[in-house]
Write a structure and sequence with these properties.
By secondary structure, the chain is an alpha/beta fold. The chain is built from six helices and eleven strands.
Length: about 240
């Protein structure tokens, strides 16, 4: 059976010794997540953080945009090209999935709004409660606890998009458009070890209560792998 060609747009390149040199990068974390499925993809990583994007939508069968510590509210060397790429995917109904930064970038490119959360950083494990479902969201779960680490969030959805899930601190935590766009504000690809390390690394820059709440939440389990299954179903179906 022919493998689905999945293009991963990597919007982060961590050069720190503490995190970047100690763990796989964003694209590899998603590859590890998806490779737990029975189906296997053929991957192509685009270093979007350095300005590399697909030139032709037909290069791959589907695409995804990773998370990043960067803010979509700032201008980066790849911002204009990424916004254009997202719009082209939408117009062509090319399967596109976004996580965290990718989730926000898709919303912004399609006419939604993104802003800073009134609650500040949202860090730890948080439940995404799904109010609506799509055919690819099997096995059936109404709530998925997943790792989160963000300060920006989607404030208003673009026209034509449907809200799928919300969390206690993020009203628009997941959305879809038709059968070709699927997003999450969470990080289904994170592991406990990785989340613990980035929390250690960033804790001095955040309020003490934020770090304490995050560590307390991390005593529970996550269902990121379920979202990985949903994503695999999404890529296959679209």
């Amino acid at each position: 059976m022919k493998r689905i060609r999945l293009g991963i747009l990597q919007t982060n390149h961590d050069k720190s010794v503490e995190v970047g040199d100690a763990f796989p990068d964003d694209a590899h974390r998603f590859r590890d997540l998806f490779d737990q499925q029975d189906d296997r993809f053929e991957y192509r990583v685009y270093m979007t953080i350095g300005g590399e994007l697909p030139q032709d939508l037909h290069e791959q069968d589907a695409f995804m945009i990773t998370g990043s510590p960067l803010s979509v509210l700032n201008d980066h060397i790849f911002t204009d090209d990424l916004m254009d790429f997202i719009c082209r995917c939408d117009a062509a109904k090319k399967p596109l999935m976004g996580a965290c930064f990718g989730h926000q970038a898709i919303a912004l490119a399609l006419g939604g709004t993104v802003g800073r959360s009134d609650d500040g950083y949202n860090v730890g494990i948080e439940d995404t409660i799904f109010h609506a479902k799509r055919p690819w969201m099997t096995p059936d779960y109404n709530t998925l606890p997943m790792y989160v680490f963000h300060e920006d969030q989607v404030i208003t959805l673009p026209h034509g998009c449907d809200l799928l899930g919300s969390s206690a601190k993020c009203k628009i935590a997941s959305f879809a458009k038709g059968d070709h766009i699927f997003t999450t504000q969470a990080h289904p690809e994170f592991s406990h070890a990785f989340m613990s390390r980035i929390l250690d690394f960033t804790e001095p820059q955040m309020p003490a209560d934020t770090a304490r709440v995050a560590r307390d939440s991390m005593k529970s389990t996550t269902h990121g792998q379920v979202f990985g299954t949903w994503s695999t179903n999404f890529f296959k179906g679209a």
